[in-house]
Amino acid sequence: MVDLRSLREDPQTFREALRRRGHDPSLVDRALELDRSWREALQEVERLRAQQNRASEEVARLSREVRGQKIAEVRELAARLKELEPEVRRRREELERVLLLFPNPPHPTVPDGVGEQDNVVVRTWGRPTRFDFEPKDHVELGRRLGILDFERAAKVSGSRFYYLLGKGALVEMALVRYALDRLLAHGFVPVIPPVLVRPEIITGAWGGATFDPQQTYRVAEDDLALIGTSEQSLAGFYRDEVLDAQRLPVRFAGISWCFRREAGAHGRETRGLYRVHQFDKVEMFSFAHPERSWEEHEFLVSVEEEILQGLGIPYRVVLLCAGDLGTASAKTYDLEAWMPGRGAYGEVTSCSNTTDFQARRLNVRFRERGRTEFVHTLNGTALATSRVLIALLENYQQPDGSVRIPEALVPYTGFDRVEPAV
Predict the structure, then answer these.
(1) Is the peptide bond before 420 cis (omega within 30 degrees of 0)?
(2) Cβ atoms within 10 Å of 240's Cβ, excluding its own
């Protein structure tokens, strides 16, 4: 949610922010008109209340002869207030619904653009893997290794689910613990959060007035929804609380299953593990002081890079343009790993500074020098196992069909290679 006072004082900045994101700038005018209407009604209520209070005080001082007339006046004022007060609430609620439609304004360093093609490569690490044999993609590798089964999962759950078997399951658990240990070394607190949360937690974290049914699984009977990332659960951890400024930053490492409907996805994006409905993830989440949140953003990106470098997976860092930002984000970096099966880089992690956008919606503040203000919240994928498995299998495949395990994972797996099963 955007700051209403800032919107009143500098509407042009918000119009420009909406334009950069490809949204209709007239949303600003709609919000300002609703704000004017609400304030007018509120002022009338306050005027009537003051008049009612004065009349009530006068009743006690009046003689019996004229008291009845003043009592009638008080009753008339009370009746008018009874009619108008619900209207004030209705106008305020309508205003808040519109304010929920605003995305977070992009940071000035975010490039202009309308989509993925306008994102900017900031840096690369490593070189795309080259082979002296015909490489296979992860779907074929997983089948031959006997660790991935999409066909049987489709019989049980439908498309874009999978069974991860044998050493594949052990590699996934090793990836989780490997990433978690890197975060523990940086002082993150490990958290296993709820994967079912209230709908307002979803929208509080990701924006909008209602959550996106194209992305979110809902359990309507219980008014709950499955999280798409533990960012959503963690964003609500301090809901309606005030933190001491000395505690900031508070850094969590969320470990959870994540669930995405991905209803609009199609084409090669849906082959194999790249865009599945359920996956395991280790997520970084930080509650930071506003004066240090951009420094925190770069730190989280550096941790993501440390994790991929430790696995020896080539990648590039990409700065998203304004039109490709998520609703809550003011600035986002994606890390894209080289995936030989695609012959291209593919996103494996993302890191965003949502500034005070989530904190306003979930009412998370901090106290400093006797005053309170909203924290800044940041999130970054430490490791999403499904997509990292793609990069790992495809980059470490061997001529004999086996897949070598990165040295950093061997202490966790207890083996250094996965041999073909067929």
Answers:
(1) no
(2) 9
The token pair that represents 167 in the structure block: 């050493």
Token duo for residue 315:
């990648």
Pair type for strands 376-384 and 344-353: antiparallel
Q: Give the C-alpha distances (Å, rounded to integers) separating 55 from 67, 188, 278.
A: 10, 60, 64
- pLDDT, tens digit, for every residue of 123-170? 999 999 999 999 999 999 999 999 999 999 999 999 999 999 999 999
Contact 404, 396 (CB under 8 A): yes
Confidence of residue 68 (pLDDT cuts 50, 70, 90): low
With the C-alpha atoms ordered 354, 385, 160, 400, is the resulting torsion angle positive or negative? positive
Closest by Cα among 211, 178, 216 to 311: 178
pLDDT of res. 309: 98
pLDDT digits (tens, 9 = 90+) for 177-194: 999 999 999 999 999 999
Mean pLDDT over all residues of the chain?
Answer: 92
Catalytic residue set: 260, 275, 347, 350, 387
pLDDT classification of 85: cutoffs 50, 70, 90: confident
Question: Beta-strand (E) ranges in 359-408?
Answer: 364-368, 371-374, 376-384, 403-404
User: Which is higher by pLDDT, 352 or 215?
Assistant: 352
* Res. 61: pLDDT tops 90: no
Q: What is the 3-state secondary structure (H, E, C) of 168-194?
A: HHHHHHHHHHHHHHHHHHCCCEEECCC
69, with CB counted inside 10 A (0-12, 13-18, 19+), is: exposed
In a 3-state reduction of DSSP, which class is residue 344?
Answer: strand
- The H or E element containing residue 311 is helix 293-311
Q: Which two tokens stand for residue 134?
A: 């015909």
Nearest to 367 by CA among 268, 238, 264, 252: 238
Residue 76: predicted pLDDT: 73
Number of Cβ atoms within 10 Å of the Cβ of 43: 11
User: With b meaning 16 or more CB within 10 Å and e meaning fewer, what string describes 178-208?
Assistant: bbbebbeeeebeebebebebebbbbbbbbbb
